[in-house]
Design brief:
Layout lengths: L1 H18 L7 H29 L12 E2 H18 L3 E6 L6 E2 L3 H17 L5 E8 L5 E6 L7 H5 L18 H12 L3 E6 L5 E7 L1 H4 L19 E5 L3 H13 L3 E5 L2 H10 L4 E5 L7 H12 L7 E5 L4 H10 L3 E4 L5 H14 L15 H11 L1 H28 L2 H17 L3 H15 L3 H29 L1 H5 L1
Parallel strand pairs: 2-4, 8-9, 8-10, 10-11, 11-12
Antiparallel strand pairs: 1-3, 4-5, 5-7, 6-7
Length: about 475
């Protein structure tokens, strides 16, 4: 309950800042509010980690690989630390190369904490001058983030104990315990990065975070998140949220996506609206007066029975796994944690829900039958030499599954169908086709329980999905490796 109240309070702060028009403010006031917003976003992430440590629960994990827009991320860092440096009479400069990737697959929370410690130390130990953050691509497309300061640099004694817990030498005249670089090293290991520390030739210290391509590359070829936001034009969306700030924030974001919105303020109103009509998407706050969001979802699923089901996205300040399990058990298709940090995060959560439970407006035949971010991640991990072979093998594996399912249908061999769908569940999940993955799971369960009627109903759908996916991977192979294929 304490975690819920903490997140709800921060959500009000971030929601209010998001709704505020800062354009009329003078540059200094606008900069200060941007700094507050950036710090509040980091406080959300630190709150999650603190509660996870206290309760022993796991941090919530995204259903998809992490995708971070690098440009806006660096802008937020610069806005925050420009104000800090200015308060100490220092300059702060962000220098970024022109060839940086638009998207990276690195956890933004860990990356922000690392940079906060690196830049914070530089600001703390520089009596004058400036702090310089340079971001560029190094050898073999490694992503380099270097922080240079105009302080005294590291002594030999400090270098010897640099990453130790509270490793500052006892005879050091510098303030602090030396905990910052210990935290940086721990977080760098989490995101598979390296830390380099040196004294500058002309004085000052230089601390660099180096991310090899295999650590940041997933998702680099995906279009920017703004281009991938779901188009909700013509779709009816019910929003059940009792907090006025959150309700207005969600309304504005849905209007940006083109949705037709119905707003209600409590659970009873939500249940009445759902009883009157079917919505293309339902957004439900879990903690509402008169009737909880969980009860709203349960009533909706009970009323739908075996008929068409509306996609439901639960919005909650509860992050513990027990709460999440309860929400999913009630029938939610996805969970979005409060506070909602950006339109990108909001849109991605909606896109995942719509992909899991397509509405009549989605059309199962539209778009590629795989998640490009998943595929980019696999190919980045495989490396350029093995990427083509990986795509070939995946296409062949889907072909093997397709032939096995055809043979199992012809021979009425439930054991063969069960074996092939077991493989398909993993393959479909690897490329992010959650619809085909769910169909394969249902077909596997039906074959295991000898439910021939369900097998007969599901098998044509699964075969169609496999054929589409195999053809799409073939097209992707030709498009990505056209020169090699021609040779």
């Amino acid at each position: 309950m304490l975690g819920h109240d903490m997140r709800a309070a921060i959500a009000d702060i971030l929601g209010g800042l998001a709704l505020a028009d800062l354009s009329s403010l003078d540059p200094e006031s606008r900069l200060q509010l941007q700094r507050v917003q950036s710090s509040a976003e980091q406080l959300v992430r630190l709150t999650d980690e603190t509660l996870a440590l206290v309760t022993g629960d796991d941090l919530p994990r995204a259903d998809r690989p992490v995708q971070t827009s690098l440009g806006p991320f660096l802008d937020r860092i610069a806005a925050r630390w420009l104000a800090h440096a200015d308060a100490r009479g220092l300059g702060f400069r962000l220098d970024r190369a022109d060839d940086l990737p638009a998207e990276i697959g690195t956890d933004p929370a860990a990356l922000e904490r690392i940079l906060s410690n690196m830049i914070g130390n530089a600001v703390k130990y520089s009596p004058a001058g400036e702090v310089h953050l340079r971001v560029h691509l190094g050898p073999q497309e490694s992503l380099c983030l270097r922080v240079r300061d105009t302080g005294p640099g590291f002594s030999e004694a400090a270098m010897a104990r640099l990453f130790d817990f509270a490793g500052r030498p006892e005879d050091s005249g510098q303030p602090g315990t030396g905990l910052g670089l210990h935290i940086v090293r721990e977080l760098a290991q989490r995101i598979r990065a390296q830390i380099q520390v040196a004294n500058g030739a002309e004085g000052g210290a230089e601390v660099s975070l180096i991310l090899p391509r295999r650590s940041w590359a997933p998702g680099v070829e995906v279009p920017s998140a703004a281009a991938d936001l779901p188009d909700l034009a013509g779709r009816s969306v019910l929003v059940a949220e009792d907090n006025p700030t959150n309700r207005l924030l969600v309304q504005q974001m849905l209007e940006t996506l083109g949705a037709e919105i119905t707003l209600v303020e409590d659970g009873e109103e939500a249940a009445e609206a759902l009883a009157d009509r079917r919505f293309d998407l339902v957004l439900v706050d879990i903690e509402m007066p008169r009737l909880s969001g969980i009860d709203v979802i349960r009533r909706l699923r009970a009323a739908e029975g075996c008929g068409p089901a509306s996609p439901v996205l639960a919005i909650t300040a509860f992050v513990l796994s027990a709460n999440r399990d309860q929400i999913y058990d009630a029938g939610a298709d996805g969970i979005l944690a409060k506070p909602i940090l950006s339109l990108d995060a909001f849109g991605e959560a909606i896109a995942r829900v719509l992909m899991k439970r397509p509405t009549s407006g989605d059309g199962a035949e539209t778009g590629a039958p795989f998640d490009r971010l998943h595929l980019d991640r696999l190919l980045a991990l495989a490396g350029p030499e093995d990427g083509r072979e990986l795509l070939r093998r995946m296409r062949e594996d889907f072909g093997t599954v397709e032939r096995g399912l055809d043979e199992g249908r012809a021979r009425d061999d439930l054991a063969l169908i069960r074996t092939r769908t077991h493989v398909l569940i993993s393959l479909a999940g690897a490329v992010g086709n959650v619809i085909l993955q769910a169909e394969a799971e249902a077909l596997n369960a039906a074959a295991r329980s000898h439910d021939r009627a369900t097998v007969a109903r599901l098998l044509p759908m699964v075969l169609h999905g496999v054929a589409r996916l195999r053809a799409a991977l073939g097209g992707e192979l030709d498009a990505r490796f056209a020169m090699e294929a021609a040779g």
